[in-house]
Amino acid sequence: MRIALAQFNPVVGDLAGNTRKILDLAQEAMRAGADVLVTPELALTGYSPEDLLLRDHFYKACDAALDQLLELDGITLVIGHPVKLGNERFNAATVLRDGNRLGQYHKMLLPNDEVFDECRYFLPGAAPLVFEQNGTKVGVLICEDVWALDPAAETADAGAEVVVVLNASPFHRNKIETRREIVAYRVQETGLPFAYVNMFGGQDELVFDGGSFALNKAGEVVAQAPAFADSLLMVDFDEGDLQVGARTALPGPEESVYRTLVTGVHDYITKNGFPGVLLGLSGGIDSALTLAIAADALGADKVHAVMMPSRYTADISVDDSRDMIARLGVKYEEIAIWPIFESFRSALAPSFAGLAEDTTEENLQARIRGTLLMALSNKTGKLVLTTGNKSEMTTGYATLYGDMAGGFAVLKDVAKTLVYQLAEWRNAQGEVIPRRIIERPPSAELRPDQKDQDSLPPYDVLDAIMQRYVEFNQSAEDIIAEGFEESDVCRVVRLLKINEYKRRQAPVGPRITQRAFGKDWRYPITNRFS
Fold first, then answer.
1. pLDDT band at 441 (very low <50, low <70, confident <90, very high)
2. Cα dihedral sign for 10, 16, 17, 18?
3. For position 165, what pLDDT does the model report?
4. What percent of the chain is modeled with pLDDT above 70?
5. 41 counts as catalytic
6. Is 28 an active-site residue?
7. Pairing outcome for strands 303-307 and 383-386
């Protein structure tokens, strides 16, 4: 028996387009001699349809799309889709062959943490599903089911000889290795080989990295699809086990993150129909990395960078920006903001009389830049990419309606220290970020001789505290006990708390950690818990 694992990039809600992709993949699989085609979880609708799953007519459209797949003969299809039976909704996989429905499996374990809200939409299934193909009994699981023993054990008890797993497992750092480890545990516990198909593509905050694979009874990887690409991975079941097939090397840590960001930008822009992107280029590391990612994701012809110098912008910031533009070949223009700033300041002079200059004037410069970018966006239809990183979002070191103005926050979940690592990785593939941008001390350049570290702890300290408090849920006391300065910890935690209102208004951006500021992070803005 030959199994085809259909790793592809669906569009949420595009039932007609997703159905066509599945039919095309089925035809390709049949030409390659496949007997069974297995799609990712909710492949018919894309993951996740969110509150579309609360609308009855959405299920009627899903049923009609499934009926269209029923018309295909010559191959068994295992299709991931939602289903409504009476008043009950399930995350399902239906087995189709030659116009017949051989069975339907309902996902048993519904994740309801991190970015998952499946208990909001579905009820858990209660029974395993095993179907027969070419004399072999094939068990079916869906995503979370493989992360615990019971569903796999029940499938084995029902007589399965091999298990296929449909997945929409989003990327975060180290997730690829974790998936393999989890499936290897199920192999060891059940004595069965597993074929694991994962979705590929970006959906708002989430990026699905693909990387489908198969493990034999010994827990060895016998087939491996590429990450971050469409793939039809063939796996043969013979002599009671899955046999060695194609194996593609997987990307390393920095490359995985970089390709996640590229995929997130590409799919957000193309799936939503934007003609391109705009971003403010400052001569700093964050905007430089964002520009490189955008050019890699969309091509230079769809990227428009704008340098908006003020009196405090260093000459080398302009020079380095021009240097990077020459390397990438994107559209570029310069708009000086100082005349606009002076006009604003003149208009506000009566209201500000007798008051010293402070961060108000700094933020005003950022808001002028945001206004200019949004005006260009309105005129051209291009989406503004914001350039702030996770360290800044943690501490509120960003201006609401200024550098936070935009539609997609590329580095929203990327700590400042990781920004530098990603810049070095990208330059190792071909240098596009001028060396001086990487080596200069970071600065917002909103006042004379300004440096980020004037207002924040060193980024290696800040990021370590942030990771422990935000991503690992450690308390301030626990972090201090690890040897961090109490003043630094209390400062970061206080800044995190008082800037919740900013994060609530920030654009979405690709998730690369297990705790991103978005679906993962849901704290009250009005909050007196200390």
1. confident
2. positive
3. 98
4. 98
5. yes
6. no
7. unpaired
